[in-house]
Amino acid sequence: MSQTKPYRVSHLDALEAESIFVMREVMAEFERPVLLFSGGKDSIVMLRLAEKAFAPARVPFPVMHVDTGHNFPEVLEYRDSRVAELGLNLVIASVQEAIDSGTVRELPDGTRNRIQTPVLLAAVEKYRFDALFGGARRDEEKARAKERMFSFRDEFGQWDPKNQRPELWSLYNGRHHPGESIRVFPLSNWTELDVWHYIAKEQIPLPSIYYAHEREVVERAGMFYAVNEFIVPKAGETVETRTVRYRTVGDASQTAAVLSEADTVDKVIDEVAATRITERGATRGDDKVSEAAMEDRKREGYF
Amino acid sequence: MSQAVVEPEAPPARQMDLLRFATAGSVDDGKSTLIGRLLFDTKSLFSDQLEAVEAVSAARGDEYTNLALLTDGLRAEREQGITIDVAYRYFATPRRKFIIADTPGHIQYTRNMVTGASTADLALILVDARKGLVEQSRRHAFLTSLLRVPHLVLCVNKMDLVGWDKAVYDKIADEFTSFAAKLDITDLTIIPVSALEGDNIATRSEKSPWYEGPSLLHHLEHVHIASDRNLVDVRFPVQYVIRPQSTTVTDYRGYAGQVASGVLKPGDEVLVLPSGLTSKIAAIDTADGPVDEAFPPMSVTVRLTDEIDISRGDMICRPHNAPAVAQDVEAMICWMDETAPLRVGTKYTIKHTTRTARAVVRGLQYRLDVNTLHRDEGAPELGLNEIGRVRLRTTIPLLADEYRRNRTTGGFILIDESTNRTVGAGMIIEAS
Ligand SMILES: Nc1nc2c(ncn2[C@@H]2O[C@H](COP(=O)(O)OP(=O)(O)O)[C@@H](O)[C@H]2O)c(=O)[nH]1
Ligand SMILES: [Mg+2]
User: Fold this and answer.
1) How does pLDDT run across A142-169, given as a tens digit for each residue?
2) Distance from B383 to chain A by nearest Cα, in Å?
3) Which residues touch B124 (CB under 8 Å, ≥6 apart)?
4) How far apart are CA A94 and CA A67, in angstroms?
5) Is the CB of B259 under 6 A from ligand 1?
6) Superfamily name and number for B324-431
7) What ipTM was reported for this prediction?
8) Global pTM?
9) What is the C-alpha to C-alpha distance for residues A117 and B258, in angstroms, rounded to an integer?
């Protein structure tokens, strides 16, 4: 914690202190917490906060990756090296396995965002996780703006936005009956820019795809998708090599890159500060379905 | 001549501070519009958000882009044109990062105002200039003082609809000032605005030459909040004990927590409650290394020189400045549950700092009419959104201060033991 003048606390220090407080509350009050770790930048920051919250002890809970099977190899590599470095226990909830064993069905359009929810819920049940840390931020989306720091889920993992527990001071109510659980969002009050400032301040390494690099892409509805095993150019689409970076890392079949020359954290910060399009608007095909796409998915148990 | 040097652009500010504020007002006074305007004027709005709002606005036949749609995030809200729940919004200027808790004005949602106000540095109340002060305005001012939000701003909105008439503004301002005087509100600022047209929001408007105060944004950026913190009374509620099970770090025992108030330093003599044992601070650790002092709202890990038994829910303070160790608590309670009222004799779970206990309601002294401030001493119960003075007895002692002195060690919540819902918010008046 750096202070420029006595008793001064910068916004990043205040956000960090709040997130650490939340993580310690969970560790003190729950039996089986787990941290959702996808190798995306928000979950990377969250894991860093967990590391800081319990130092010099190890992060005292496992991490879980809900693996859609549609991954960027750089991200998987990052995930595994970070897990090894911190000596963590990694739980993988695999959508592919669930499809293979017939517990969920592949959608006709091949997207896996929606079908990862039952896979997540099955893992929660199997491991009896009672608190799940998620890296969602309220600035991401308008349904998320209404989410609590401690968000109650019933035994079906459902969110009821009209029936949320009031959250006062820093007194978080994590009480639940067996089978119910709490989603915990330590980054609730962070914005995309805060996350990047923190990555710079803490010098947190990220998967390389977050920085500008050349890639073969196709343009669809104004968004640039990397050509890979999941995204095959359709007739009439031209493959071009562009300099791009990823603002979010989700399902590789649905996450688009943005054109960017920002190859360092400081350049990314400048870009994020100047950008006029939301993170999800710029990169996620899945949120564009309807005005209430996110609200609907969250009600079903999505993060 | 030397080669021209291109000055690098100033890096984005990383040393902003943080201001949390809650907005309140009756339905249609223009809260959502005002927030939309603040976001718009500080360039915190994204073009895709704006496009989405424009499209929905056009589809509904609105005459202008309805900025309120930006904050109304749930389907039911958009369909009914109302705000159901507290929504959090973020924007920043080079000086400050702001967190807005947008709380709905409907009477049945007063608990949301209390929720938003509990963590707010500042409360922003709106009134419609045409309507003047209404029941809700007084209620919101009262709640602001009850929750001890240090700064209050009254925005007299829709000034465009009263032709920017100074007399209209003066009447509302006078009436509100005298009401606020009864409430022990320490810092009040009143600003005439048009949220819709953006007057006196980001910059001062030419339409109100008679108004000499700051624009709303200027005030939000400059209001002095650093001294709102209590830096006098050392209160460190222990959250979690860190004891690494490792071969490299041995014999480490640290008490993790967030400083509620006061300043802690290595070498300070401390008193640990409820045990009453004393010790000294050996070190204050963070993951970035030890620090010379810790103050609110830092999250740190304190080590003591003596091996004493300390666990979650204990409090580290100073020998001559300690909270009450109390099982009998007098408090104002705001009731938040629609399914059952607060009744004398009922038991609840109580959460106070990092301590959890059970509490029984021993008495209900009065229920307060938040509009007239009349005390009804015969009230049998507190229903949803009602506020009253209550006497509680707890199973184990709380380590408590008066709420007016310390918002962290003076506030608590009550939880229904069967439904697990958060049913009440309490502010301690006296603990013994
Ligand atoms: N003329 C005028 N109309 C306003 C102003 N502020 C808000 N409104 C309108 O008042 C109505 C209610 O506003 P809204 O922001 O939804 O109010 P809320 O219920 O407090 O969130 C909308 O039709 C707004 O366009 C203002 O300053 N001037
Ligand atoms: Mg509204």
Assistant:
1) 788 888 999 999 988 888 887 889 999 9
2) 16
3) B21, B22, B23, B24, B34, B153, B155, B216
4) 5
5) no
6) Translation factors (2.40.30.10)
7) 0.92
8) 0.92
9) 34
